[in-house]
Amino acid sequence: MNSLQKRILIDGKVLPGNILKVDSFLNHQLDIHLLKEMGKDFYDLFRDKEINKILTIEASGIAIACYAAEFFNVPVVFAKKGQHKNVGTDVYTAEVFSFTKGSTYEVTVSKLFLHPEDKILIIDDFLANGQAVLGLQQIIKEAGAELCGAGIAIEKAFQPGEKLLLDAGIDVRALAVIESMDGCKVVFRD
Ligand code: G4P
């Protein structure tokens, strides 16, 4: 069991609706020592892919992506949500439907920061329905860059995201794959 999995069992809280609360260490208060270990774990998973850029999505993906980027020694670009006056007009955009929120939002990346020669690793905190990663994949395609994989901190394997991403040809790997949270008991895939 890796450090993230152990921490989920100790400090994660299962809420009604199959929501796992991890805000004491991953997406509100941040445990920097855990993040560093996770960054190394992502590096070990994707080190052979010649990644030269990490792409994530605001807000909760950013800290995780930064720690991974330190091991890959590459820059991080984060997609912005919603309409942003300060991104400029020369942007790649994709529409993302959030099942959790029941609404669609736009993600935007400036064309200045993605290029055809880029070999990109997507990093995000949760994989649930997969729509956020699919939106980022669309942006990477528009830029003519190569998507080398998606590194996810916590995947909820009982939701459709993993299959959608695999069907889209994405090499998706998660540090903690949750098979079920029935009765508030978190069960990981081996
Ligand atoms: P997707 O991200 O896989 O497309 O699935 P979905 O649309 O259902 O997720 C919407 C938001 O809810 C995402 O964050 C996602 O990280 C978060 N989420 C999904 N399942 C869980 C869960 O079990 N626990 C927690 N804590 N979050 C979950 P977001 O709206 O993009 O938020 P943020 O990155 O701005 O924090």
Structure summary:
The protein is of the alpha/beta class. The chain contains five helices and ten strands.
Write up what this structure looks like.
The protein is an alpha/beta fold and 190 residues long. It has one domain: Rossmann fold. The chain is built from 5 helices and 10 strands. The strands form 2 sheets. The protein has an 8-stranded mixed β-sheet with strand order 5-6-4-3-7-8-9-10, sandwiched between helices. A two-stranded antiparallel sheet has the order 1-2. Helix 2 packs across helix 3. The mean pLDDT is 96. Guanosine-5',3'-tetraphosphate binds at residues 19-22, 27, 59-61, 98-100, 125-132, 156, 161.
How would you summarize the topology of this molecule?
Blueprint: H1 3-11, E1 13-15, E2 19-21, H2 32-46, E3 53-57, H3 61-72, E4 76-81, E5 91-98, E6 103-110, E7 119-127, H4 131-143, E8 146-156, H5 161-167, E9 172-180, E10 187-188
Parallel strand pairs: 3-4, 3-7, 7-8, 8-9
Antiparallel strand pairs: 1-2, 4-6, 5-6, 9-10
Give the structural class. alpha/beta
> Which ligands, by name, code or SMILES, are bound?
guanosine-5',3'-tetraphosphate
Q: What share of residues is helical?
A: 25-40%
Quickly name the level 1 CATH class: Alpha Beta
For the secondary structure, the number of strands is 10
Radius of gyration: 16 Å
Strand content: 25-35%
The backbone outline, from C-alpha atoms, is globular
Give the CATH architecture.
3-Layer(aba) Sandwich
State the helix count.
Answer: 5
The topology string of helices and strands comes to HEEHEHEEEEHEHEE
**Sheet with the most strands: spatial strand order:** 5-6-4-3-7-8-9-10
Unreliable residue runs: none
The whole-number mean of residue pLDDT values reads 96
| Biggest beta sheet attributes | 8 strands, mixed
Total count of domains: 1
Q: CA-to-CA gap between the ends?
A: 9 Å
CATH topology: Rossmann fold
